[in-house]
Specification:
Length: 351
């Protein structure tokens, strides 16, 4: 685009740049017609001597030339002209502020060669024709970059969860699946993807998914509020799917980014043991032995099984259980299981 702009307005070089008027620092996002060594020296040294800092005082879309920024005789005597502009055979530039804030701005710069001469009326006329399109393209590009950033941030967040997350449209098309969801699709025991569409591994699961998608598309129950549904894999493993419509409030941000209508959170219907032991230990001031007993109760069950697993007597286990009940305010072993479940981490263990 910059090359075509140069040709259209009889320019020698062009750039899309950013500059901070306070620090006089700057950056060239894109450039055409300037040797790489000169671009490096501009970024490292000459950006501070470039008189474009005063562009901030001009209107967006206004064409500004070098004599508009400072007396041209003064420009010719400056270090920027003598060491950077003149050695490249440049003489003048037309600059247009595309967007600005209180102290910084982005701008288009079209540089004229000595052979072409100073910016003239014909160059101004031609630039005036294309400035609105360049400004619009610049703003659209900024919006696209923001959407990409939002999508990347959301995807990275979802990939950190230990639950399979599927973002799906009303037709059942999978528009995004996090890492755990990808693992489920590859296994194919519960959910599979056929031509990009989410399908169940058996008739019962397929019927359940079809019901979800149909209701979402027609504004039915699943399209109004979150719903939890039981699913069973072909090997008998039980799962639970939480269906969350992306139709209102903060959820609509995900819908806008991914063009999805619903989010499905799928995980095994079992107690997660990814509880951070140190958090429980600190919260209730448990000893290392008490923590071992607590986790063993959750993993293996009653007193006899815990005693056998830890290699201690049942009386020892009962003593530690008594201390646990007192410290955490529990009355029975089921309360201990609930406690560990409450501290379960939602993050996936990818170590």
């Amino acid at each position: 685009m910059l090359a075509e702009v140069c040709e259209f307005v009889d320019g020698r070089a062009a750039g899309l740049l950013f500059k901070d008027s306070v620090s006089k620092s700057g950056n060239a996002f894109y450039q055409h017609g300037v040797d790489a060594s000169y671009m490096q020296s501009y970024a490292e040294t000459y950006v501070r001597f470039d008189p474009t800092s005063t562009l901030l005082f001009f209107e967006e879309g206004q064409i500004v030339t070098t004599p508009d920024l400072l007396p041209y005789d003064e420009f010719l005597q400056g270090r920027f002209y003598l060491e950077w502009v003149q050695p490249q055979g440049f003489i003048d530039a037309a600059k247009v502020v595309l967007e600005k804030s209180a102290t910084s701005f982005s701008y288009l710069s079209i540089i004229r060669s000595e052979a072409a001469g100073m910016v003239d009326d014909e160059m101004r006329r031609r630039l005036q024709l294309i400035i609105p399109h360049i400004r619009r393209a610049s703003l659209i590009g900024k919006a696209v970059d923001l959407k990409r950033y939002e999508a990347g941030t959301l995807a990275a967040t979802l990939d950190g969860l230990d639950t399979g997350v599927f973002l799906v449209d009303a037709g059942g098309r999978i528009v995004h699946a996090n890492n755990v969801a990808d693992d489920m699709l590859r296994a194919g025991d519960l959910i599979r993807s056929v031509a990009g569409r989410m399908m169940g591994a058996d008739d019962a699961t397929e019927a359940m998914l079809h019901q979800i998608f149909a209701a979402s598309g027609s504004g039915g129950a699943y399209g109004i509020e979150a719903t939890a549904l039981p699913l069973t894999a072909r090997d008998g493993t039980r799962y639970v799917a939480h269906v969350l419509p992306l139709t209102s409030g903060a959820r609509s941000r995900a819908r806008a980014i991914y063009a999805a209508d619903i989010a499905l959170f799928v995980r095994k219907a079992s107690l997660s043991m990814q509880s951070p032991p140190e958090a429980i230990c600190k919260a209730f001031k448990l000893t290392p032995t008490e923590l071992r007993v607590l986790l063993a109760v959750v993993e293996v069950g009653g007193v006899a099984k815990v005693a056998a697993a830890l290699g201690v007597s049942e009386d020892t286990v009962k003593t530690h259980l008594g201390h646990l009940f007192e410290k955490v305010g529990a009355k029975q072993q089921a309360d201990l299981v609930k406690l560990v479940a409450a501290y379960a981490s939602p993050l996936a263990d990818r170590s």
